[in-house]
Amino acid sequence: MSKNSYSETMIAKQYDATESHTLPEDVTDEPRNDEEMHLKNIKHDPALIRTYLKVSDDYGELLGDKDLEAEVIECCKQYMTVKPRGIKEPEAVLQQLIDLSNRYVRRVNNAEKISIGISAKYRIREGMLFNIQKMIVKKVLKLKWSEWFNENYEKSLLRSVQDYMRLAKIPGAIKYAVFGKEQLLEILRQIGKPEGDDPIGEFLANKGIEYDPETEVDVAELKIRTDIAITREKLDTEGLEEVADNKVEALVRDGIHLSRAHLKNIKLVKETNGDLAGYVDKIIATGGKPEPVLTAEIKAERFKKIVDRFLDQTNTALEDDHYLTEVNAETIRRIKDKIWLLEQKLSSLAN
């Protein structure tokens, strides 16, 4: 590939189908450095080529700090291949890496949030376009929207497009694109039926979140506070007001989004008079993957399944003398003892 960065014009060049195996001018198959791929495997796809060149030609532009990107690249080159014994002052090197990592992480996080926000803005505009089309198709042409859509676009796009259309219908939604598509959709779920001229703004205000699109804000903290409000709303809607606010904040700051399964389990803990705080702590400690809550009904169902499997195996053993001779007689005796205990226990409970 060329030694210079490719221009916007070159990257945006439209390819004719007959030129599907050609590259833009001054671009060759060979990579310029170890971080780039050989283009022979993707040169047949003009769209992928354009995307790849935008990625490979970024030297910190998206980050907003080309000098920092160059510093990180140089640091990685210096230490990635060095052997442990080659590091003469490890504590000084670690301090340098800590400082560089902190600066880089902040920049990368900010760049990612900006990218998510801009993408959401584009998606909302996309939804506006499709809402206009739907209006014409249904109200003017009197056709079925989904059928018309599938005839004119890829069928697989409809589900995503419907999300963008929902967002585009919310008054003022584009002002809040900084939150990203997924968080906006979650806010919309909590709002229910949007009312007024600024339903998203009213939702944020009701949750004590101040957001002015004209004022520079800490986007990361703003999104966290919004996620906390959304999670609190989810719990309250399920009748789980007892989950303390500090537990809700801990969940969000640990990057855990409560799923339907989480909410179901938390409700089961409450209904069985279990330790709500302890169970939420378990969700946090396991990164969102705690053991399911075992109610008496669930345990009974599991017991039944285990017994059914045991009976199937027992029938197999009864029909296979060789198999049966391999079964330990002591195991049979232990089963008999447990069955006797179960019978006694059930009898006493019945009385």
Report on the structure:
The structure is a single chain. This protein is mostly helical and 351 residues long. Among the domains are: 8-109, no CATH class; 300-350, no CATH class. Helices cover 62% and strands 0% of the residues. The chain has 15 helices and no strands. The protein is extended.
Which features characterize this protein?
15 helices; 351 residues; mainly alpha
Kindly report the oligomeric state of this protein: single chain
CA-based shape: extended
Helix-strand pattern: HHHHHHHHHHHHHHH
Largest sheet: none
Task: Tell me the β content.
Answer: under 5%
- Helical fraction equals 55-70%
Number of strands: 0
If helices are DSSP runs of H or I spanning 4 or more residues, what is the number of helices?
15
Write down the overall mean pLDDT. 85
Q: Kindly provide the radius of gyration, computed on alpha-carbon positions and rounded to a whole number of angstroms.
A: 30 Å
Structural class: mainly alpha
What ranges have pLDDT less than 50 throughout 5 or more consecutive residues?
A: 1-20
Termini gap: 86 Å
